[in-house]
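hey m, so remember when u said the tokens were messed up on ur end? i reran from scratch. heres the input so u can diff it against urs
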Amino acid sequence: MYSFDYERPSGVNDAAASLGEDDKVLAGGQTLLPTLKLRLAQAGKLVDLSGIDELKGISSNGSELSIGAMTRHVDVADSAEVRSAIPALADLASHIGDAQVRNRGTIGGSVANNDPAADYPSALVALGATVHTNKRSISAEDFFVDLFETALEEDEIITKISFPVPESAAYAKFPNPASRYALVGVFVAKTSGGVRVAVTGAGPCVFRQSDMEAALSSDFSSSAISGISTDASGLNSDIHASAEYRANLVSVMAGRAVDAAS
């Protein structure tokens, strides 16, 4: 690990003001710290958000669920408010990594990192969530840009994420047995604006499966999408699964998610 400076501000504005060009924001640290330890990245300074209480917590008003950026996965999974408003989101959080990861990792850190196999991006896109920062509010579809790339500016910090409460929703994933990351994960949400299907793990970035959305809008059943395939071109291919295998998993996981949501 290379040497770096460390700051633990008590407010969002102080944290943003202290960020320089080569500095990194530290949330749960489940990705950043191992990356630094392996010298795959270098930071001039780490700005630790763990002391900022306003970034933590969960609230719901019946139509919208808000989760602070520094809220841990375990808190999302165990929250009575999340389980009441969007049980699929609590279920998703309960299967992230292992107990150690869930007790340290945060929703804001995961979303900002935008790992192609992370679980939360599919939930944000499928539910039509909004990412709030110290500067602005960004729709989930505009937030996730590409592989490990988001719309965040260098001095921008996620403060919370707001989710419209759907009519029904479910998430199904095929996990890597070692990391529990999604080889493919599909989040299906039936909302007042229609059905949304978001896929993670299959491609370089989360994406919507529009053909499945159209079919499910007419018939919300797994049989309605049983004949719909996903183009394998452009999907991830690695030692864990080929692009073609991942394309098939999209269909399998989508069917399971629809059955669960029904």
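this time it looks ok to me. Residues 12 and 55 are 8 Å apart (CA to CA). if urs says something different then somethings off w ur setup not the seq
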